[in-house]
Amino acid sequence: MKRILQAGLLVLCGLGLLHVSLFTDLCLRYVKEGMRPLLIASGAVLLLLGLAGAVIDRGRRDHGHGEHGSEGHGHGEEGSGDDGHGTEGTGGHGHDHSAVPRVAWLLLLPALSLLCYAPPALGAYTAARQPPKPVAARSDFDPLPRTSPLPMTLSDFTSRVQQDRAQSLKGRVIRMTGIVTPRGKGAGGGWDLTRIIINCCAADAQSVKVRVYGGPALPADTWVAVTGAWHPGGKLGTRTAPVALDARTVTKVHRPTNGYQDALPLG
Amino acid sequence: MLETRETRELVGARPEADAPRAEPPRHWPLLLIGAAVVPGTAVVLLGRWGDAPAVQAWRTVCLAVTVQALPFLLLGTALSGAINAFVPERVFTRVLPRRPALAVPVAGVAGVVLPGCECASVPVASSLIGRGVAPAAAFAFLLSAPAINPVVLTATAIAFPGDPAMVLARLLASLATAVVMGWLWLRFGRAEWLRPAVRHTGHRHGGSRLDEFRLAFQHDFLHAGGYLVLGAMAAATFNVVVPRSVLDTFAGAPWLAVLFLAALAVLLAVCSEADAFLAASLTGFPPVARLAFMVVGPMVDLKLIALQAGTFGRAFAVRFSAATVVVAIASASLIGGVLL
């Protein structure tokens, strides 16, 4: 790989990272918010490294004419490769068949993908193929505020339905937001309100789900706010109670910036 | 007469003198055209197929693994470049015990100092070998660093609240695996499995250290980055193709569960800072199996195998990864059986 191409590849990678982290918030589709400063720093480092490489190596090439000895020596360091064909001897003829193997070209794929063809956040497809994330066992539940409808996270709803002996959800109207995940025919049709939660990056995604009864049939991956009451069945506060909601209103909302967290709905 | 001689000189001189100078313009347009055409053709050719939910999920996961690992890979390659250019060889000979058998556990414990993901440790281990550290000690460091550093142990403690035994078991089992693998390499390892690391020459007299650092950094990053993308693609394929609901079928039998979660750790390639949370969510599995998931994951997974194959050679990566999986499972079962 030619030096100038290496520099170009580094610049593209740097620009790609800066594009998704500094100029837009596309990186939140792939990693957690906390990674963002690291991504910005990495993008800047790669960009600088690429630019420095382009400038310095070009300068050296122009400068190196006439003094062939130093030129040969200079390339001896980089030309000695580890991918089989580079030995100490190749440096002698002043070419930079660089030691970087062709596999480095694969970096072009994520770089270009980040720059101009960024895939969307994980959604219904992933959620539908996962069992719901188990909620931690809890025994003490704070009394719920009096507001109605009451904003709640999907995890909190799940644990209150199945574990709260005081049955604090009884008769309450709840408001939750998430994405629409259609249920398969075998699962009784209808749809689940879903949130995808990541711990580090999208590869470790898990999902929390609340089954929704009633309401319009919306296309998969739509972000919605649902208000409604617990769908009765079994005994509330025990494992027999279904994690489900009888929807009164279903309205479309915008995807929140923290779409990969199980956060409280705003407003 | 004079004119012709000058012309001849010019003609004669041109190819030699200008050939290197003409290279950048010849290849820049190619790169630019490639940059402009590749995504376009991809969109046109893939058409609807590219927007199928499965393909989108694959691209998202693949890009997520890559983006998440890049900062750590940069850290690792910067560190490796710095070791190569700035740290003199005698530092390592002074710090590490002379006998390799003793250097192995010391290097294993030294893994505590490298905070971050497993991607950072491969280039660092490679540059350590280049600076005269015994390969066995460098491999102990390679295996222990991503598993026992404070960031990962803290994440484990958060993921398993009120279960400090799990953190301790992870620390001990990972350290034991790393040290045993180092000793195994001392006893059975052969130098010819390793690709000769001619590139890491260290500081040369008369060269600019900063320039050496930059070149090693650039080389290592491009090299390892390519393999990282390869590994991310493989991991994304398994992530999307194997539905998570398959898991529950293996949860019943304890031995099968250990083997199954170890295999899952290899295939999913979740970063070592996050795997504790995933392990905590696999509630149907016995604790020993979850421990095996956390011990195997940072040491062997698809993207690491790709990175190691790129750095040390394929002959090494295959043997080393296979042996590490066996040792890691044994050590997790033993220590998990006692502690959990």
From TrEMBL, chain A:
UniProt key word Transmembrane helix: yes
Keyword field: Membrane, Transmembrane, Transmembrane helix
Region of interest (Disordered), residue spans: 60-96
Record domain DUF1980: where: 167-260
Isomerase recorded as keyword: no
Bias-annotated ranges (Basic and acidic residues): 60-86
Transmembrane segments: 39-56
InterPro entries xrefs: DUF1980, DUF1980_C
Alphabetical list of NCBIfam families matching this protein: TIGR03943 family putative permease subunit (TIGR03943)
Name of this protein: TIGR03943 family protein
Organism: Streptomyces pyxinicus
UniProtKB/TrEMBL annotation, chain B:
Membrane topology listed for this record: Multi-pass membrane protein
Subcellular location: Cell membrane
Keywords from the named record: Cell membrane, Membrane, Transmembrane, Transmembrane helix
Residue segments, region Disordered: 1-23
TM segment ranges: 28-49, 61-83, 103-125, 137-160, 166-186, 221-241, 253-270, 316-339
PANTHER family associated with the record: UPF0718 PROTEIN YCGR
Protein known as: Permease
Annotated organism of origin: Streptomyces pyxinicus
